[in-house]
Amino acid sequence: MSIALITKTPNFKLLLTPATPVPSSAGGCVFAVDPNLPANEAELFWLPSQRASAVILEATPTPNGEGLRFTPSSWTGVRAHRHAGDGEHIILGTVFDQHQLWLPDPPPTGHALAAIIPLDDLATGRTAATERFLRHVKGRRLPPTPGPNPRFVDTLRALDGHLNGASYRAIAQCIFGPARVAAEPWRTSPLRDATIRLVRTGIALMRGGYRKFLRK
């Protein structure tokens, strides 16, 4: 059996958006983003069809109509702009307030825009995402959003401990506190069962369950 070594092509920046993979004489493979970037710095374009918060835009039938116009260079916080075979993709905003846009058939600069909201299971999420994007480009303050779910935070902490080799008891001490863990026999403690459930939930999310959050 032969083993092929995969290396980063030095031309990865030129190969970000082809509709189909393009062979490179330099070897390796085409990367969607620079693989050397940390996860919190890489700009990821999720499939718009699978992400409820992706805003789909197209030209309005009347070029001189009122409303938002296609002028991405004047929009605040544009972080990534890609031209691909299926249209243009734009990410703007911040890490905590991100807007992903997809224009399947980009209009000329300055043309009035309309939002497309397919009447499917993601319609409610797309409507809310469109309103958030419109507030952003018009400079309006967004309404406050709730903080992270405490159980979700505990799930990630439990998964992190598990992946680093920590025992269930050690994980429970970090999440619930040493005093609560020591208050009753560990083998029959409800905290032990709760910790195991948190770890299992975290593993399930890591193995693909996270995708359900894209549909919210």
Sum up the structure in keywords.
single chain, 5 helices, 28% helix, 216 residues, five-stranded mixed sheet, elongated, alpha+beta, 14% strand
What this model shows, in words?
By secondary structure, this protein is an alpha+beta fold. The chain folds into three domains: 1-42, no CATH class; 54-137, no CATH class; 150-215. The protein contains five helices and five strands; from the N terminus they run E-E-E-E-E-H-H-H-H-H. The protein has helices spanning 123-137, 150-163, 168-176, 178-182, 190-206, and strands at residues 54-59, 78-84, 87-93, 98-103, 113-116. Strands 2-3-4-1-5 form a five-stranded mixed sheet, covered by helices on one side. Strand 2 (78-84) and strand 3 (87-93) form a beta hairpin. Helix 2 (150-163) packs antiparallel against helix 3 (168-176) and helix 3 crosses helix 5. The longest helix is centred in the C-terminal third of the chain and has 17 residues, at 190-206. The chain starts with 53 loop residues before the first strand and ends in a 10-residue tail after the last helix. Residues 1-27 have low confidence and may be disordered.
